[in-house]
Amino acid sequence: MNQLVSHLGVHTSSTLSVFVFCAIFTFTVVTALWVVGLFQGNHSMMDGWYGFAFAAPALIAYLIVDAQSVTAALLLFMVMLHGGRLGWYLAARWRRYVPIHGGDPRYLGFVTQMSPGYWWKSFFRVMEPQAVIIVLIGMPAVVGILENRQPAGGITALAFLGLLVFMVGLYFETVADAQLQSFLALPERPRYLNTGVWTHTRHPNYFGTTTVWWGMWLVAVAGNTSCWWTVAGPILNTIMLTSVLGSAFQDTYMGTRPEYQELMVRTRRFLPLPMSSHAIARNRDRLAAQGASDSLNNEGSPA
To answer: Which residues lie closer than 8 Å to 190 by C-beta, 6 or more apart?
Structure first.
């Protein structure tokens, strides 16, 4: 691997050069999926690749530099475990959607929303932004491996802490996805899942996904403090899953449904912590006040 990429102009001794090569790999794969999606009529295949897209560049980086440290091996193990699990879950979900809908309904919606001109809009608005996100969020794993390539001692207390944080996140994302699939398979069920790890939070899977990347960042920094700047990855992931997309988007999208409003009263958006009776009462009062305000606005609107 080292000699092969050297022929391509990659300076294997340079962290930046190898990182850029891994980023180019990500953009190349996503672009190839964009082309395939044009023939398929939608780009939901991207969802099936998304999880694996974090593991593949880290593995490539590890092989290129022939990393020798325990930290690099631990980071590779962590990202392969997270990316492989997420990739398998999302790919299986995508395969279930294909015979029923022809693909993931969200991606089918993009086709309608962006037509005419979907073929080029999908490149700039659907596919390549995901490549950027993958590169940025995955920095603690890829850069962490590259900056910890040299043989070193065992892992530190901070690395153990990072591994613990990672395992907590992996538990929540794995169990949350498994419980959701079991819930959806029930012939008769309530509208929303609120048992197990879904008891106190509406989005335990997003909490888990966020937490695993903070764990990987801690391990990377514990091995080499020059990796500190890759904190941009976990920060971006946290913002996306709490404030921009993820939980905030779903709460806005479903927040007008009475059953979901009741769920919002009793659970937190993100953290899997129980709510006090005072907080629940406060949420209920806020919901009632909002309902009264909406009712007055509707009455005052011209027919």
So the answer is: 259
